[in-house]
Structures are given as C-alpha cells and as structure tokens.
Amino acid sequence: MAFFSVYCGFMYNDFMSLPLNLFDSCYNAKTGLRKSPDCVYPVGIDPIWYGTKKELIYLNSFKMKMSVILAIAHMTLGIVQKGINAHYFKDMPRMLNEFLPQLILLLAVFGYMDLLILLKWNTNYTGRTDRAPSVIVTTVNFFLNGGEVKGDDFFAGNQLVSQVLLLIAMVTIPWMLLVNPYLLWKEEQERLKKRKQRGGDVELSNFGSNYEVFKDEKVNLLGHKKAHSVHNLFKKQVPGDLDGDEAFGRSVSMVSDEAIVMEVVGKRKGHGHHGDDEEFDMVAISINSMIHTIEFALGTISNTASYLRLWALSLAHSQLAKVFYDMLLASSLEKGSVIGLFIGFVCWASATLGVLLGMDVMEVMLHTVRLHWVEFMSKFFEGEGYVY
Hints:
Layout: H1 2-12, H2 55-88, H3 92-121, H4 135-144, H5 158-197, H6 227-231, E1 246-247, E2 250-251, H7 257-265, H8 282-306, H9 309-335, H10 338-376
Antiparallel strand pairs: 1-2
Helix pairs in contact: 2-3, 2-9, 3-4, 3-5, 3-8, 5-8, 9-10
C-alpha cells in the first residue's frame, strides 16, 4: 500500500498538497500558453495545473478515471485467478462456463470503457474541445442508444464496435445462467440411465458376509486406487448365492467379483454441486446459478463504482493537506518570520503525522482490505474448505 501511495503521489504530482516540479512544465507560467504543441510532461500531471481555476475539475476527472482503470485491472486479475484454479483442479465446466463468460463480460463493457479513457487521453482536442466525446455518456449510450457517441468518435467504426461488444456481453448472461445447470442435468440423466441398466446401485453392504474388506482399506473403494488393485482387497468367503435371491433387484448369479468391484469403485461422486447422498435437485441448482449470474452481472457495476473510493480518499486527503499547509505554513513563509515558521512547522508536522499519517492511513488500510476481500477475492475465492 505504501509503494502504491508513492506511485499515486508521482502520478498526481502531489506531495503534502505541493506540486513537485521535477521536470520543466509544458506551459508558460506567466501567459498560461503551451510552449510547444508536442510537449508532454514526462511523468504524472503538469504542476502548472495546481493553483488554477480548473484545478479541482481537472484533477477530479483524472483521479476518477485512474480509479476505474485500476478497478478493472484488479478485478480482471481476480477472474484470471479463477481460471488458474479451474485449470489446477482440472474443472473444465468452471473454466468454460464461469471463467470465460465472466472475463468476456467484464472486458466487453468496462474494459472497453478503459480503452475509451486511454484513447481520449491520447487525443489532442485543441481547437475542437466542444467535439470531445464524454466517456460517461458514451458508456451509458452503450446500453441505451446502440453505442451512439456524442461528439467525435473515439476511433473509426466506434458505434459498430460498441454494438458488437454489447451483443457479446448479452450472450454471456445466458451462457453463465443455463449451460452449467444443463450439463449437470444431462450428467444426472446419464447416471440414472446406467443405474437403471444395472438394476440399481450395488453396495458392498448388500452382500452380507460374503465379501469383506481388510483393515481400514475400505476408504480405497472410493476411487483412490485402480479397479484391479481394489479387487485384491476382496475375499470371497462363502461360495454360492448371497442371502436372498436378489440384490437391488438383480439376480445374484449375474454379479461377478469384477462387476462388484467396478460398480463400488465407480459409485458416483459429487463434484462441488451436491454430495454423494444428496438427491439431485434441478430447481435448487437453477436458483443457485441464477443467483451467481445476477450477482456477477450487477456486481461488475457496483464493484467498479466501489473503486471510486480511491478517488474520494485522494480528493479528501489532498484537500486536508492543503488546509494544513495554508493555515499553518503559508502565512509564515509569506511573512518571513523565523519564529513563526518554526512554530508553524511544528504544528503542521504534528497535524500531518497525527491526521494524515496516523488516522487516515488506518482508514485507507480498511478501504484497501475491503477492496481485496469483496471486489477482488469474490471473483475466485469460495471458502468452502476441504472435506476431511
């Protein structure tokens, strides 16, 4: 957090409310005119903006856009983490039906907005400022007016690209909502079909004392060993029929040793959606899918807005630092009083250390923890624990 604060300080060119004139300004301080049309301040904001009438308007716009760019970068990293987890656990349904549509939806809408911000920053609108398009208005029109751009287009074919991206974003909603429940339903139907073909689930306990498992190796029947290895765990004690004529509606004479082993080992295991003994509930699965889809789709908007706290905190702290400087140091510097400067510096340093570097750092830390826990970790962390 400290390194990021220093980075933002260089980007905003702000040190204790004072601009750092590390490089030569691109503007003439007396006339306010640009020295050269091609001049670009190397790092951060040109210090000439501080103290002008448009200081707050310009800085607020810049900080707000920086917050959105950082928001999308941070949340994209969280979604990529979900993809890495899916790859590690070899969970292809999650990779294809959660990671991919979520990444596409986020980048198609808000990644596109970040692109517009960068394009506007790198376009010179001198002499045609009235034709400069608004990023916010364009983003709203992305949903309401078919991507219409008020003013000059950001790039050729701007509106067409907006319409295509909107269509892609709309496709990801039913993709996230319907595909996984359908695959689970299809898998359940296949399981029921196989169960019907073999006359029901064959459980070891249904064969009385004719088969036994040595020691504690019953756990191995859940699939941790190959079928031929598991077969060696069984010992036929009494040849002939089992107690009763049928086991789960099937003639005992039709069940071989190998079939018993394979069917016990092949017993269906849950894969994160419902456990072994839970009844398949398509309604519950559909509702769960709907909740997650709505949560993510609306969350992309609310989470992005939540990162605007970076802008608000920066604005509040910069103005607070400015008040401390103007009230405690500026007057002493103007008068040239050594004693007044000493007293003013002590008061300014105490206020800065106590408020800005004490209470406000704790406040910023809490906001940072919230952004990591809610906006970032919600993209991949589930916290369901491990089965013992």
